[in-house]
């Protein structure tokens, strides 16, 4: 991680800015902005800044208001107020509303200002380093769980990928820009199946009727998965989504406790639609038939999610079927059927989107075992239509 030594100085007095820049330019990379509006332009175009130092009293917007707004764009930046007004009430408000690191009064001795900014730099470094570490830990934990699932149950692993792909497409269609929690929940939603008897999983996936005891076990899998995820840092919301994946929009279903409607996490509402849609598909329904069946059941699904599913299916209809070999695979293709070895071993379940990594793995595997070729895939007529989704 490259050290960020960028400092933004904000004041409506150009003379003050020039003076401060002279004091700091030998120590830090300094940018200046005359007033909050110009400062916000700098934050959006040049940021993130490690430290932002702002005057308190400026026309149009106070330093407190500006720093609170800047925090939404650059939440990790250390924020400092520099002002000629040493009123205690203003200082308290600054800490509460702008999450201010330090409150300095003018005139401020250069050494004190440099020391305070250096402390702000260290705070920024520690915050970003912790986030980077958490990110790596999080990614490693998710990869470990998925690798474990792929070994224990390739069928469930394949189902998880199908669920993730459609969930991400729906989230994107609904205009959700940051859907990593929904994508992660979709990927990990089925890990509870690793605790279920293999025969029960096969019966469920083939659409066979389950006994009362088998149904009880199946309905418990979200709770098991949510319990595993709750102990991983930053996956608390993902755990909530996974726990509510079988909850109906009207509040019925599992878990029995908790409200319905929009009180259910959006990711869980998407998962409920995707899971039931795939179940109907697995029982022989065509895509349009499955969607029509779901629309007939009042109160079970979020109407906005059903609409997004219809829109996604309309886009996915713009695919053509093609028989290919491993050597002809390209990223963006979608498996129309299970990919198996000549001995019947399942490699990748249908519905999975082909990636560069997956192609490389298959090429390496085909050197050691015979893969049933050719196999059928769906190829988008317009490759850009779903570009970036499900990666």
Sum this structure up briefly.
The protein has 391 residues and is α/β, with parallel strands linked by helices.
- Biggest sheet character: 5 strands, parallel
Order of helices and strands: EHEHEHEHEHHHHHHHHHHEEEEHE
In DSSP terms (H or I, runs of 4 or more residues), the helix count works out at 15
Mean pLDDT: 82
> What CATH first level of the largest domain would be assigned?
Mainly Alpha
Please tell me what the overall shape is.
Answer: elongated
Let me know the CATH homologous superfamily of the largest domain. Hypothetical protein af1432
Q: How many angstroms does the end-to-end distance come to?
A: 24 Å
Low-pLDDT parts are 384-391
* Proportion in β-strands: 5-15%
Radius of gyration: 27 Å
* Fraction of residues in H or I helices: 40-55%
CATH architecture level-2 label of the largest domain? Orthogonal Bundle
Q: How many β strands by DSSP?
A: 10
Q: Classify the fold: give the CATH topology of the largest domain.
A: Hypothetical protein af1432
Q: What is the strand arrangement across the widest sheet?
A: 2-1-3-4-5
SSE layout:
Blueprint: E1 6-11, H1 14-24, E2 29-34, H2 36-45, E3 51-55, H3 63-73, E4 78-83, H4 88-98, E5 102-105, H5 110-152, H6 154-173, H7 180-188, H8 198-205, H9 212-219, H10 221-229, H11 236-243, H12 266-282, H13 287-295, H14 303-316, E6 319-324, E7 334-335, E8 339-340, E9 346-348, H15 356-366, E10 375-380
Parallel strand pairs: 1-2, 1-3, 3-4, 4-5
Antiparallel strand pairs: 6-10, 7-10, 8-9
